[in-house]
Design goal:
This protein has about 350 residues and is α+β, with helices and mostly antiparallel strands. The protein contains 14 helices and four strands. Strands 1-2-3-4 form a four-stranded antiparallel sheet.
């Protein structure tokens, strides 16, 4: 962290200096809390629950601080992508279920959930909790297992990667390698060959940064490139998704190289137009598409189920059934993130 401390000490803007200084110190406090938790143990259930509440909230604060530190130093989120860590992706939902809103968790407009720790299967490092969900008169329960040592270990791993990357960022001068030229060609002519040219150029200059958002977007572009469907309407939607992800690469490349260019427009495909028109007329469904990009989200299943049960438009149902029939979480993300582009009228 020496590079980060040096950077903070040299900041002349007082507001930014205090922001990054307090953020850095908060991360140190979270480190101390984790060390205390790992070195100690409790047997009394009440004491264990206090530690669970404290640790979950501390990890939540730690991740928030990592984002603040990254954005404060780099002015973007490209060097941090905690949601791609499956364990930490679930942390925010666990924290909200147990610490945030255990007795009043909203599930869309018509649902509510109640969560409670199972005190009979409670240890210092592991616990289970049950969530009771009521939606439109239907009732279901789900049980979630939580390994606290795994959470702390994954947090430490991600934090170390992010801090190391920020140090490398501060030591490296901004260079212009004109990634946008290869990306523009990829937009015009999508192919694995053109995609690999972008990837190779990025790695040659920035290194093989597996957690960097640019590398993650490259993976999504490759997935979309290889994704096909026999239904022409669905296939047109997939091609649209591919173009959108290439534009995301373009945006990141421009930001990293301090460049600006007007990005090309991509024509909205038929299925997406039908969805947008349907949402314009049925705005009560808008809230239910917001979480469809993340199949790990506790709302994902109930929101999708509600939409499939209540939507009557055949074209919109065809689109929604893509979620129901898909098992690849990254494809679900691509679909859901595309739906989130809807702008309420």
């Amino acid at each position: 962290m020496n590079e980060i401390l040096k950077y903070i000490s040299e900041i002349t803007n007082e507001g930014k200096k205090y922001q990054l200084d307090t953020t850095y110190k908060t991360l140190l406090q979270v480190d101390e809390i984790i060390k205390y938790y790992v070195k100690n143990t409790e047997k009394e259930h009440a004491a264990v629950v206090i530690d669970i509440y404290g640790l979950l909230q501390s990890l939540f604060v730690g991740i928030d601080s990592l984002y603040s530190l990254t954005i404060g130093i780099t002015s973007n989120k490209f060097y941090i992508n905690v949601n791609q860590n499956k364990t930490l992706n679930g942390l925010k939902h666990i924290r909200n279920d147990i610490v945030g809103h255990p007795t009043n968790r909203r599930y869309g407009q018509n649902g509510i959930g109640y969560s409670i720790i199972n005190m009979e299967e409670l240890t210092y490092n592991e616990f289970k909790y049950v969530t009771y969900v009521f939606i439109d008169g239907s009732f279901k329960t789900k049980e979630t297992n939580v390994n606290l040592l795994e959470l702390t270990s994954e947090y430490d791993k991600e934090k170390t990667i992010i801090i190391d990357r920020l140090g490398e960022f501060l030591n490296k001068e901004v260079t212009t390698i004109n990634l946008d030229e290869e990306i523009k060609q990829m937009f015009i002519e999508p192919s694995l060959y053109n995609l690999n040219k972008i990837k190779d150029k990025f790695i040659d200059n920035y290194g093989n940064l597996s957690n960097h958002r640019f590398m993650w977007r490259l993976e999504l572009v490759e997935l979309a490139l290889e994704w096909n469907n026999d239904d022409p309407e669905i296939n047109n939607l997939i091609k649209y998704i591919l173009k959108l992800q290439v534009l995301k690469l373009w945006e990141i490349a421009n930001d990293m190289e301090n460049k600006y260019s007007r990005l090309p427009y991509v024509k909205i495909p038929y299925l997406l137009k039908k969805l947008y028109k349907y949402l314009d007329k049925n705005q009560n469904y808008i809230e239910y598409i917001k979480n469809l990009y993340d199949s790990n989200n506790p709302y994902f299943e109930s929101d999708l189920e509600y939409l499939l049960k209540n939507v009557v438009d055949k074209s919109v149902l065809k689109l929604l059934n893509m979620f129901d029939n898909e098992t690849n979480k990254s494809k679900i993300y691509l679909l859901g993130a595309t739906l989130k582009n809807y702008k309420k009228k």
